[in-house]
Amino acid sequence: MSNQREREKRREERLAAESQVDSKDRRERMLKLAAGAFFLAIVAVVVVIVVAASSGGGGDTELEGVTEVNQELSGIPQNELTIGDPKAPVELVEFGDLQCPVCKGFAEDILPPVIENQVANGEAKIVFRNFTIIGPDSTPAGAAAVAAGAQGRGWNFIDLFYRNQGAENGGYIDDEFLTALAKAAGVKDIAQWEQERNSPKATKAVENTTAEAQRLNFQGTPSFAIKGPSTTGLQPLGTLGSSEEFEEAIEEAS
């Protein structure tokens, strides 16, 4: 089954789940950056869909999506938490929290076409930066991703985390879960990964990128910024609503 059909199947499953969710339980994660009513409507829909898909558990060490994620990312260069050709002219930066259900939706449905096209073609690279706003478990999760990135498997780890995400602050982010993710993501030296994820250096890296997001006045996750030949430094984008909008932003920044 193609990646596109897989994404379409996930969208259908989320839409079916959406009809069973009471509107009072809807949770909006929201960047109030004056993007307008249309933008807020898009975010609300995404929140409902991904919360419905991830509610009621998750975090099982019987991981889902391992083969699919590793196939999708195969052959694309990775360096720390950057995916794509290091010489790509445009850099798209995502500030995300691994516990964030909206980030999960973006990772599964919106960013893959960008990775398959502009990133794979060398036009852009995407950088993940931890923006830990949900709870204390977000920091060790982010540090584990940083440590996986040190062995060139950061994006595999991040995508697998989202595929197996549990409820926010649900207590599923423990040593067993993180280690299972690292192994499934292809981290070769688990002992080294273990040492690095528990190091002050990894924790500091998470704190630094969180502070950077705050300096950019981001209020929620995921938040995006872009840098390229046609921008003046790192330019905040906020949260765009579709793959096409990200592709257009990359073209404009080129």
Give the proportion of residues in helices: 40-55%
Q: What does the main sheet amount to? A: 6 strands, mixed
Number of E-type strands: 6
Round the Cα radius of gyration to an integer and report it.
Answer: 17 Å
> From the coordinates shown, what is the CATH architecture?
3-Layer(aba) Sandwich
Shape: globular
Number of structural units classed as domains: 1
The CATH superfamily label reads Glutaredoxin
- The level-1 CATH class: Alpha Beta
Query: What amount of the residues lies in strands?
Result: 5-15%
- Distance N to C terminus: 33 Å
With strands numbered from the N-terminus, the spatial order across the biggest sheet is 1-2-4-3-5-6
Mean pLDDT: 84
Structural class: alpha+beta
Which short descriptors sum up this protein?
254 residues, alpha+beta, Glutaredoxin, 6-stranded mixed beta sheet, 11% strand, globular
Please provide a written account of the structure.
- There is one protein chain.
- With 254 residues, the protein is an alpha+beta fold.
- The chain has a single domain, classed as Glutaredoxin, CATH 3.40.30.
- The chain is built from 10 helices and 6 strands; from the N terminus they run H-H-H-E-E-E-H-E-H-H-H-H-H-E-E-H.
- It has a 6-stranded mixed β-sheet with strand order 1-2-4-3-5-6.
- A hairpin with a 2-residue loop joins strand 1 (78-79) and strand 2.
- It is globular.
Question: How do you describe this structure in short?
Answer:
With 254 residues, this protein is of the alpha+beta class. Helices cover 51% and strands 11% of the residues.
Write the layout of secondary structure elements.
Layout: H1 3-18, H2 37-54, H3 66-73, E1 78-79, E2 82-83, E3 90-96, H4 101-119, E4 124-130, H5 138-149, H6 154-163, H7 175-185, H8 190-197, H9 200-215, E5 223-227, E6 235-238, H10 243-253
Helix pairs in contact: 1-2, 2-4, 3-6, 4-10, 5-6, 5-8, 5-9, 6-7
